[in-house]
Design brief:
By secondary structure, the chain is mainly alpha-helical. 55% of the residues lie in helices and 8% in strands.
Length: 283
């Protein structure tokens, strides 16, 4: 039985309501035709396109144009911070001299990215964190031998994609020196959090090969990383607030220590006696 499409053949959007789905037989120039599913509002627009092309469409060219339209309508993200551009005019399409690729950056984000990549200590620290994440995934989760774990491309691609918040790595993606996605610390914490769950799943299932196990483990990590990321960010905010409060207390303490103290005057021991003697004289 053919698998029913979950997206509209014309706009590519998902179906939120079954009542909104309309089926229509699409004729191809090859002489064949096939039932396709549309949003109710998309079908009239598709029929206009069909009339313009003489009542038949070429499947390959149509899908290519459709993908081009989707790409054009997709809002771009900043390569460094991962946030959407409010206005496309504020983006800079710049050559990434460190990754041999092009990327779109906010002007301030591009300056931050260049500074990060020119910071040798920061790059060294990021490489160290990458090795920790890679080793933990290969040895602690997959129980791989050193010969298996050495430069495994499947692991590299999936972990690198997760670093920038994606499930799959695309050519030209910038990994190092950016804030987009998840930090290696968050990825490592998530792996430790779900390690027991992954181990139990591995013991109860059969896998075709190592790539199948890698993909299965990554699905579990992906489903839990947002929860861990929220906890990590909350801890970082709490740490920042604690540091601010500590600095305020130290500043206040230093301010009070610099206040000029009044000289201490010792109370006279005879002042009380003199008072009582004066009263006795009055009597």
């Amino acid at each position: 039985m053919a698998k029913r499409a979950k997206t509209c053949f014309y706009c590519g959007g998902t179906f939120e309501d079954e009542m909104d789905i309309v089926e229509f037989r699409v004729p191809y120039t090859s002489g064949k035709s096939a039932h396709r599913r549309f949003h109710e509002k998309c079908l009239p627009e598709f029929k206009k396109v069909l009339e313009e092309q003489g009542g038949e469409i070429e499947s390959a060219s149509y899908r290519k144009k459709l993908n081009e339209r989707r790409t054009a309508q997709k809002k771009p993200n900043c390569t460094y911070c991962g946030r959407l551009f409010v206005d496309t005019d504020e983006s800079l399409v710049l050559y990434n001299q460190f990754g041999n690729s092009y990327g779109k950056y906010h002007p301030n984000c591009y300056i931050k990215y260049i500074n990060n990549m020119q910071n040798a200590d920061l790059r060294k620290q990021e490489n160290k964190e990458w090795e920790e994440v890679y080793d933990y995934f290969a040895y602690e989760i997959l129980n791989m031998r050193p010969s298996q774990a050495r430069e495994n491309k499947a692991i590299v691609y999936r972990l690198a994609a997760l670093r920038i918040g994606k499930k799959r790595l695309n050519r030209g993606d910038v990994i190092m020196g950016v804030e987009a996605g998840y930090s290696y610390k968050t990825i490592l914490y998530t792996m430790k959090y779900v390690r027991t769950q992954i181990t139990e799943e591995f013991a109860s299932r059969r896998f075709h090969d190592m790539n199948h196990k890698i993909n299965y483990a990554m699905v579990i990590i992906w489903n839990n990383i947002d929860f861990i990321n929220g906890r990590v960010k909350a801890m970082e905010r709490q740490k920042e607030l604690t540091e601010i409060e500590t600095k305020k207390r130290l500043a206040e303490k230093e301010r009070l220590s610099n206040v000029e103290k009044l000289p201490y005057q010792r109370k006279s021991k005879t002042s009380g006696k003199a008072r009582w003697v004066w009263l006795e004289d009055e009597e």
